[in-house]
Amino acid sequence: MISVAEALEHLFALVRPLETETVPLREAAGRVLARDVAATRTQPPFDASSMDGYALRSAEVEPDAMFKLVGEAAAGHAFHGTVGPGQCVRIFTGAPVPAGLDHVVIQEDVTRRGDLITLNGDMDGKDNIRPAGGDFSAGDVMDAPRRLSPTDIALLAAMNVPEVPVTRRPVVAVMATGDELVMPGETPGPDQIIASNSFGLAAMLEAEGAEARMIPIARDTTASLTTAFGLAAGADLIVTIGGASVGDHDLVAPVADTLGMQQSFYKVAMRPGKPLMAGRLRDAAMIGLPGNPVSAMVCGKIFVTPVVRALLGLRAEPARTLQAQLAAPLTPNGPREHYMRAVLAEDGLRAFDNQDSSLLGILSRANALIVRPPHDAGRETGETVSYLPL
Ligand SMILES: Nc1nc2c(c(=O)[nH]1)N[C@H]1C(S)=C(S)[C@@H](COP(=O)(O)OP(=O)(O)OC[C@H]3O[C@@H](n4cnc5c(N)ncnc54)[C@H](O)[C@@H]3O)O[C@H]1N2
Ligand code: MOO
């Protein structure tokens, strides 16, 4: 059995970043910027006032100095006249500072009578001017790859980039398999259950920026699985769920083999998720997840999500772990890397007693997976351990 890190390397070797497409700025949030984008303008494009007040010459600023008002500059309305000695211009936040002037006194520091202002005695000395290019200059770049956040969108707008090059969304076929499964909303037979993890995985993939294509549930027959693989054609990634173990009805690998899958690995030293499988099937990467609901969701987090990120052109790297103290002890770990469902509260991390890989209720209450290396010794309360936030 290979380690989780080795399995991830094998998975990254199965995929390449997808092509670039251009989308309107309004549709770019959450997408991955595919190449560096340069500002087409300088911001601010002129020296701008940062306050409402009076623009004048700094050399003339002294307590009780008087100035004559000769005009007004507002945002979007520059003052184009000339300003002589002892003169000032009424100015508002965002307005261009008139030529020859280099200081804005805020209106709170001024006494005004008609067209005359007098500076107060205790001014703070700031010039209240935002220099041209103080934010960015034409040609400055936003570097790729990156997932575009709302603040990135604001910056791109300011850079006057109305069309954004992004990586195409990966199409991921999600294929639940099993005679026991029916869809949510249907009435299951006495020996049936509702397909669940396929919906969780589709949600996880979409949150990551992929387009999830739900394949109708495949039955545990060669014919049904073959049909389902046919419906997955054209996807960038095929994720099967269930039928991955060693039972007589675990047919996913044999059917995929028949269809020409080149297997990369089978079985990973982890818990849950041991019977994980991966390879290439036609033009797609394929990941075969174990059917147990928690196993499938944990493998989604550990493997599928990083692969989707790699397809999007983001750095191929494992899900990032954080560190926290334990609020309760842990018994020694076995030979497989263990992802323990846990709650992180103010006093630290506490693993659930029951770590059975079928329990979605516990997974839903968990907000962290404690990551235990193989053969990790028992851990005491207060010790620092790694975890993945959920
Ligand atoms: N003799 C052995 N038996 C098993 C082994 C083993 O090493 N030797 N491994 C166990 C482990 S670990 C896991 S994990 C499971 C994985 O089995 P499969 O991937 O073949 O999954 P299934 O048998 O199809 O299903 C397992 C379990 O999960 C339920 N399931 C499946 N798909 C869904 C779905 N979409 N939504 C909700 N629930 C689903 C299914 O009904 C089963 O209860 O094998 C162990 N056995
Ligand atoms: O790997 Mo299984 O996922 O332990 O239940």
Automatic annotation (TrEMBL):
Catalytic activity: adenylyl-molybdopterin + molybdate = Mo-molybdopterin + AMP + H(+)
Pathway the protein takes part in: Cofactor biosynthesis; molybdopterin biosynthesis
Keywords for this protein: Magnesium, Metal-binding, Molybdenum, Molybdenum cofactor biosynthesis, Transferase
Superkingdom classification of source: Bacteria
MoaB/Mog domain sequence ranges: 173-310
Gene3D superfamilies: MoaB/Mog-like domain, MoeA, C-terminal, domain IV, Molybdopterin biosynthesis moea protein, domain 2, Molybdopterin biosynthesis moea protein, domain 3
EC nos: 2.10.1.1
Role summary: Catalyzes the insertion of molybdate into adenylated molybdopterin with the concomitant release of AMP.
PANTHER family given in the database record: GEPHYRIN, MOLYBDOPTERIN BIOSYNTHESIS PROTEIN
Family as reported in the entry's similarity comment: Belongs to the MoeA family.
Protein name: Molybdopterin molybdenumtransferase
Species of origin: Roseobacter sinensis
